[in-house]
């Protein structure tokens, strides 16, 4: 059986694989294959039970179909299908895929459970060596640039805020403060660029990362896929699970990894941080920044 990383890598060949294996499937499995080939964007968000009901086979037949394709279980087949479509779905299509959740209780449970599952899968599969090296490179960099467009800007801004407390020369690239390239024009081999990129992938983020790589900067990426545009330029790839449960991208796992990265860098600068926070506390007290 394939490991999870191999399953993800093979996702782009899934449709052709189903077609090539079709004659070997049982009668029930052929019904599933036919439905997936015509409706793979819908199947990506169906449970095994729901797919079985739709096609007219048992849930166990659906599970065996996933196994026949070489996946360790139906959830891994779903991951592969979602990998194929996540950047192709329009916002309208994302809304359509959750129309079955028509009450608040179901929505609450579905979304929170999805975030929990994404965090667990992220922890299981993240490259710890890449994480450690990313932390060390950020600490030693002359300047740290952080880019994240659209919804990914939330994570970029969070990283910038806390890394800016720990380190000097942290720059969050902002589209409301001039052209993005003007803000990274001085980037060089002494610097680190942290890219935060999740579907639908921003073309501007890809362009900035490409430019930074040409200038010799070290690239750290928080993204959800080996096939994300920024991944090909990345030195330290921090893969974050972000399987979609709605029209809203789940950034909870990305925020968790960003948090871990901040703490990792911070603990290496523990004494300097303590002094810095002592100074800040004095300022906050003097100017009544916080309510008591």
UniProtKB/TrEMBL annotation:
Gene3D superfamilies: Glucose-6-phosphate isomerase like protein, domain 1, Winged helix-like DNA-binding domain superfamily/Winged helix DNA-binding domain. The keyword Protein biosynthesis does not apply. Residues 134-272 form the SIS domain. Keywords: DNA-binding, Transcription, Transcription regulation. InterPro entries: Homeodomain-like_sf, HTH_RpiR, RpiR-like, RpiR-like_SIS, SIS_dom, SIS_dom_sf, WH-like_DNA-bd_sf. One of its GO terms (molecular function) is DNA binding. GO terms for biological process: carbohydrate derivative metabolic process. It holds the Pfam family SIS. Residues 12-88 form the HTH rpiR-type domain. This is SIS domain protein. It comes from Romboutsia ilealis.
């Amino acid at each position: 059986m394939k490991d999870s990383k191999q399953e993800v890598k093979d996702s782009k060949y899934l449709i052709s694989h189903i077609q090539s294996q079709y004659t070997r499937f049982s009668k029930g499995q052929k019904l599933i294959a036919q439905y997936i080939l015509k409706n793979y964007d819908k199947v990506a968000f169906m449970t095994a039970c729901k797919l079985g009901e739709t096609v007219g086979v048992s849930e166990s037949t659906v599970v065996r179909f996933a196994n026949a394709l070489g996946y360790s279980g139906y959830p891994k087949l779903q991951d592969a299908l979602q990998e194929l479509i996540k950047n192709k779905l329009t916002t309208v299509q994302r809304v359509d895929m959750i129309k079955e959740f028509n009450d608040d209780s179901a929505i609450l449970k579905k979304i929170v459970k999805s975030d929990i599952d994404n965090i667990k899968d992220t922890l299981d599969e993240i490259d710890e060596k890449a994480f450690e090296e990313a932390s060390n490179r950020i600490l030693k960099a002359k300047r740290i640039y952080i880019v994240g467009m659209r919804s990914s800007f939330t994570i970029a801004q969070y990283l910038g805020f806390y890394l800016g407390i720990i380190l000097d020369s942290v720059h969050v690239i902002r589209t409301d403060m001039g052209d993005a390239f003007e803000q990274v024009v001085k980037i060089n081999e002494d610097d680190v660029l942290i890219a935060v990129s999740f579907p639908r992938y921003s073309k501007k983020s890809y362009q900035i990362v490409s430019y930074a790589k040409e200038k010799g900067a070290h690239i750290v990426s928080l993204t959800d896929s080996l096939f994300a545009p920024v991944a090909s330029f990345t030195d330290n790839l921090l893969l974050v699970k972000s399987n979609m449960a709605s029209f809203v991208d789940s950034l909870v796992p990305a925020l968790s990894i960003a948090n871990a990265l901040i703490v990792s860098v911070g603990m290496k600068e523990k004494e300097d941080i303590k002094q810095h926070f002592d100074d800040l506390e004095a300022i906050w007290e003097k100017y009544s920044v916080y309510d008591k």
